[in-house]
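Onboarding guide, step 5: your first structure request.
Type a short instruction followed by the sequence, for example:

Predict the 3D structure of this protein.
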Amino acid sequence: MTVKMNLFCKSLMICWVMVLWGTWSFAAPFTGAVPWSELADRLEEKGVVMIDLPVIDCPLGVADEAPSHLVIQVIENTLYEWKEYEFFSGDGKIRLAVEMVKPEARFLRAGESKTLLNASRLFGGGMDSGSDAPESGLARGAVIGSDDREKITNTEVFPWNNIVYIDMQDESGHWFYDTGFLISPYAVVTCGDTLYDFQTKKWFSNFVVTAGQYFNDTNQWVAAPFGSIHDSSDVLNGKFHDTGLNEYNYGALLMPEKFTGIDTFMPLEFDFRPSGPVNYVGYPGFVGGYSGQGDMWRTSGNAIGYEGVDERILKTNIDMSNGGYGGPLYTYNSTTKSRRVIAIMVYNGDNPNYNSACRLVSADKYSFTQWLAYTPGSSPNPPNPPNPPNPGYSHSSYVPYYSRSAGRWTGLAMTNRNNGSNQVLIEYYSGSGISQGSENKEIPANGQTSFAIQAQDGSEGWIKISSTKSLKGLALVGQNAPECMFDMDLKTSLNTRLRLAHLAADTKWNSLVMICNPNDNTTNITYKVYSKSGSLVATRSNSIVANGSVQENLYSLFGQALTGSMIIESTQPVTAFLLYDSNQTTWKAGLSAIPVQ
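The system replies with structure tokens like these:
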């Protein structure tokens, strides 16, 4: 649970604005949107000085590469999504090519990329003071060591006008506050703890959102340069509600109106893993031993490691204190000269050695995309966004064997060689056909992912992978003692006749046949061994339960040494794999079963 700053007294004068909500909508364009075709003219109209950036025309075949950066941002009230591809030139410097996904799907020429990236970084001004980049030497700690946080003195310019102070009440009527940041005219992202107390299973309410708040030293009061907005609806991702894990500790406030004068919002970058400087800005309750007084502060430190499911938690040594949770952790991109939010600061239980942040990962991009596109409608209580609909899985892949038993682990590596993102459902089944869990992934266009599977601890079985587009990849099964590993390609077809081209089953080598039955009925299996000259040597039969699998040691199954080849016949389509396992060394090797007529 996040420990929040109790606000029994807060000298902020705010007006109550009565606003009617409209229908729940993600499609309506933002008012005052400047379209992509007019963005260059808008830059010129605002007097934005275009800085030179190392951009190039998108080369042929760029779509076959994995993008270096995946970015989403609302610029001048238009939603943009793009991919950046980094290339090293002959002089050893980085060159950047940009593929735009939204509002148009196209490969950009160098001039267009320059327009987009300058718009991303410069709208609103105040972005490029000499001390502002790369922001890598400001602070350390949790608070660890000295408190070196620095107060933001002009909160009315981009990007500091995106940072919001959030007031909320618990069920007892006590006021608290945390930090958040605008991602669009109507959506604020913050940590899940700001919306829902997992320990007590209670929701916070009566949210008041104030953008760019600061303490006016002259008048000794808290100033709200853009005013405050009431009656926001809180939206929490279901995984945090169910588990309370920091890996999913994020949510959103959807506002009934927007702040006048804020039209561009900080870029969000998904799946980025910094190994060095990171930055933070927010509203900590205590700074340098005294109350933060409602001021905005920033600090910098380093990414010092990763942990949790899919390493979704970034550990950092930046300073943090109550009230600052929910603020953005961001990086400074020296190539594009821009800040990008990569994570959300979350409470990690007063750990004295590091602070934690929930990373933005592409598997969560569905939720962020919905919040980014939200506009108010007609309902006073818009519902939480539904669970992502079944995306229409049209491709299936199979792994005949996995293990999470003692001393063993299994990993998956998958690549998406398509121009669109790929929604992936991974399901785990035991040999007896019982579900051992599932997980979802999203692989960006021409992207790749690899991870240790999250099947039930101690289980063994097989894996079904459903995806919206075709996949390529493999599974790795490792053993700790003695250390060894083998791999299997993802199987993309099922067949009733399969050939294993080589057998080596005797006292020195085990030939282990692994077969999965992704059908709703029991499948009968017949194994036929053929000699090197093509004669049928022996047959054996068994069955595999619905959605089950088997591992057969051929030397034990047949009771004799085997060479030659094998045909596997089944009453329903299956897939299979053969593992050669040495009895004298740690050597292992695999052979995929080949479909035959």
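Each response can be followed by summary notes, for example: Confidence is low (pLDDT under 50) at residues 1-28, 123-145, 378-389.
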